[in-house]
Every structure is written in structure tokens, then in C-alpha cells.
Amino acid sequence: MKQIPDEYYQLMHQLQAVDFVLVELTLYLDTHQDDLEAIHQFNHYVKERKHIKKQFESQFGPLLQYGNSYSGYPWNWDDSPWPWQV
Length: 86
Known about the structure:
Helix content is 59%, strand content 0%. It has two helices and no strands.
């Protein structure tokens, strides 16, 4: 397996942290639909996640398949490491 740079782990950690926040806010908003501040927080973290995902994928390749991520040329979906392998 090829050497994985530190930035890979830093960006992956940021994605995991933002995903955690989004899951928690989703659960909260399921029972507090009128909490405008929580909705603002959710939308903020959606934008943050998109930014981090774009940065990650531009450097290390796609995170998801089936139309959720763009592919580089040549087709790079099968490049390792896969996110669950690190």
C-alpha cells in the first residue's frame, strides 16, 4: 500500500467530525422542527462538509460512488486507500 500523507488523515478527521455534527443536528431537528438556530447550524455544516469533501477529493480521489462524487481521469474510483482502509 502506498504512503498516506498526514493531510489525508487531517481532512478525513474533519469530515468525520462534521458528519457527526450533522447526524446529531438531524436527530435534534427531527423533534425540534421550529428551532431556527439549529437549522442555521445544520446549513452551516452542510456547506462546511461540501467544502472539505471537495478539498479531499481533489487531492485523494472520490469518497463515494454512484454519482455522489466526480471521477478523475483516468477512472480513479479503484485507487487505494479507500476511506475505510485507513
